[in-house]
Amino acid sequence: MIRAFVLLTTKPGTSQEIVTSRKIRGVKVASSVFGRFDAVLVIEAKDLQELAEIIYDVVENHPNVMHTETLISVFPPGTHRVDS
Predict the structure, then answer these.
(1) What's the CATH number where 30 sits?
(2) Which residues span the domain enclosing 8?
(3) What percentage of the chain has pLDDT greater than the value 70?
(4) I want to staple 30 with a disulfide (CB 3.0 to 4.6 A). Which of 19, 42, 59, 67 is the partner?
């Protein structure tokens, strides 16, 4: 299992529409945010191929998404590493 954080830049005023417009498979969290990006998605997929399909086919093809940046988690979902 792979977890990725997808940072989205959207057309002005459309970030909330994107995070609520439809249920995107694999998306565990979707939030509009303030800052350099307009929205953040947390996606879980079985492998890199499925992750790529979700990001490309569903997220990047949305008409209001202008740019994405994907950060793949170093640790798989369900594992926690906290250094004391």
Answers:
(1) 3.30.70.920
(2) 2-72
(3) 87
(4) 19
Q: Is residue 49 part of a domain?
A: yes
Alpha helices (H) along 1-84: 15-21, 48-53
Q: Which residues of the chain have pLDDT under 70?
A: 21-22, 78-84
How many structural domains is the chain composed of?
1
Cα–Cα distance measured from residue 56 to residue 51, given in angstroms and rounded to the nearest whole number: 8
- Is residue 83 domain-resident? no
Q: Please identify which residue in the block is written with the tokens 């979707």.
A: 30
Token pair of 48 as six digits: 């890199």
Q: Is the dihedral of CA 64, 70, 75, 76 positive or negative?
A: positive
Q: How far apart are the first and last CA of the chain?
A: 26
